[in-house]
Amino acid sequence: MRVVKFAIKGEPRWGVLDGPEIALFKGHPEFCDYETTGERIPLKDVHVLPPTLPTTKIVCIGKNYADHAAEMGGDLPTEPLIFLKPSTSLIADKETIVLPSISEHVDHEGELAIVIGSIAKNVKEEDVYDVIMGFTIANDVTARDLQAKDGQWTRSKGFDTFCPVGPWIETEFRPDGQLLETRVDGEIRQHASVDLMIHKVEKIVAHVSQAMTLLPGDIILTGTPAGIGEIEAGQTVEISIEGIGTLTNTVA
Ligand code: MG
Fold first, then answer.
1. Residue 26, pLDDT score
2. Side-chain half-sphere of 35: how many Cα atoms within 13 Å?
3. Residues within 5 Å of ion ligand 1 by Cβ?
4. Model-level pTM greater than 0.85?
5. Separation of CA 33 and ligand 1 centre (Å)
6. Which residues lie across from 18 on neighbouring strands?
7. FRET pair for 73, CA 20 to 30 Å: which of 2, 24, 153, 210?
8. How many domains is the chain partitioned into structurally?
């Protein structure tokens, strides 16, 4: 099931994608209320919103693919390396990544993202799918020059618009060899199986929930494979994950 959040006359609504149309939900997916109203609306006629419930935090995993860790240098983390992006960095599919004037080098990082569906603390690895609502696609946009200058990552990854997420939540997705591909103006930059992740989804959710309570709508970005690269104003970034779809954003 592909769960979509969108706006009708400025009001947020939820529904399930059915071909080219959205069947509207009566309730809110936070309560696993997937009953539909019978009302349908074409996907092309709505403004899609980030598929969040809302989000109290965006947790990210660093250096979780060996080939990306190699291109960044340094050692591989022995357990998931976590950092946060602010919720104000969120934007939706088809919205615009705005390059900050104080950075001269901004990179894309295509990533599989976990959407949390229920309150989670100290979750066991075998139970993580009880608290996962589904999966979506994210871009961990990073001002690479500021990341190096600051020596930590908060500012470089925290600018407004630096976390495109969407276009929807696929509730049935399970990572199993699907390809992640990032294209910039059609040129393939990243192309890797999500199976190459060092710390898997089970380990990541268990590990993060040991430190902080995860709430419905929280998002966990699972790390990026090799092939990160610079994005420039006027370009279009597409990130596709087999079984989920494609997240498309322009750059300005
Ligand atoms: Mg990343």
1. 86
2. 5
3. 109, 140, 224
4. yes
5. 32
6. 21
7. 210
8. 2
Question: Residue 142 falls within a domain, yes or no?
Answer: yes
In a domain, 53, yes or no: no
Q: Which domain holds residue 34?
A: 2-48
Do 203 and 107 fall within a single domain? yes
Is the CB of residue 105 less than 8 Å from the CB of residue 144? Answer: yes
What single DSSP character describes residue 141?
-
DSSP letter assigned to residue 172: T
Which residue in this structure is represented by tokens 């992006």? Answer: 85
Q: What is the mean pLDDT of each run of 10 residues along the chain (252 residues)?
A: 90 92 84 82 93 88 89 84 96 97 98 95 97 97 96 96 97 96 98 96 98 95 95 98 98 98
Residue 1's identity, in one-letter code, is M
Span from the CA of 40 to the centroid of ligand 1 (angstroms):
36
- Return d(Cα 111, Cα 138) in angstroms, integer: 5
Report yes or no: 222 and 204 within 8 Å, Cβ to Cβ.
yes
Instruction: Compute the distance between CA of residue 140 and CA of residue 65 in angstroms, rounded to an integer.
Output: 14
CA distance 229 to 50: 24
Question: Is residue 26 included in any domain, yes or no?
Answer: yes
Rounded distance between C-alpha atoms, residue 202 and residue 210, angstroms: 13
Q: β-strands 2-8, 47-48: how paired?
A: antiparallel
Scored b (16 or more CB within 10 A) or e, 74-99 reads: eeebeebbbbebbbebbbbbebebbb
CA–centroid distance, 185 to ligand 1, in Å, is 21
